[in-house]
Amino acid sequence: MTRTLEDTVLETTGNPKNANLRDAADKASFVHRATDENSHGDYTYIADPSINGDANAIVLVTPRTDRGNARDGTYDHNIGVWYEGVNENKWAIFNQDRAAILGRATFEVIVPPASQSFVHYAEPDNTIRNSTYLDNPLTNGEPNAVLSVTQDWNPGGGRGVYNDHPIGVVYEEDVQQWAIYNRDGALIPNGAAFNVAVIDN
User: Fold this and answer.
1) What are the Cα distances from residue 145, in Å, to 18, 197, 198, 200?
2) Domain boundaries in the chain?
3) Which of 33, 62, 64, 87 lies at a C-alpha separation of 20 to 30 Å from 77?
4) What is the DSSP string of 14-50?
């Protein structure tokens, strides 16, 4: 049996769909608003003591539904996070299509506990077409887990990989693993990375 649980992912487009993640966010949960001062082109810097200077932080983001984001209450870009360690030593939210971040766009930012989160990399041995399979004790054999995922351009800093596609999560019963997949069917590029937070059933 295969179950699709798109409502458990912190979507890279659209509205927040996983309020339950706040229950696990012991470390930090806050709202970030893009302004002229904190935004440059396709990204907006996040300034928070819980993640400033920490290239290995697990950062989850989702657009908030409010008047600052879009005409119809949705955000029209696939987003991700990246770490800029050369000058700013800060995390940033960016548009995967490299379109400019609109001023006053707002995002929910969650930094989950390390014990409930990890980074997943798409590699040839765990990726089939538009799906990449998670192999982690938090998710293996756990069909009732609740996963929240944000694309991470460059975990730890350095060069990164774009994946300008909306993502979802699904539990594959036959292999007893969760997979992250591109909902539009596009291939997941080698090296694409994802921040994952897990809540037990």
Assistant:
1) 12, 10, 6, 5
2) 2-10+115-199, 21-111
3) 87
4) SS---TTHHHH-SSEEEEEE--TTTEETTEEEE--TT
Average of per-residue pLDDT across 60-72: 69
What are the percentages of helix, strand and coil residues in the chain, rounded to 5? 5, 35, 60
> Does pTM surpass 0.90?
no
DSSP designation for 99: P
Radius of gyration of the chain (CA): 16
3-state secondary structure of 6: helix
Report how far apart, in Å, the C-alpha atoms of 124 and of each of 53, 168, 189 are.
31, 19, 9
118 strand-pairing partners = 196
* Token pair belonging to 47: 């300034």
The β-bridge relationship of strands 39-40 and 193-199 is unpaired
Dump pLDDT digits (tens) for 78-87: 999 999 988 8
What's the start-to-end Cα distance of the chain, in Å?
A: 18
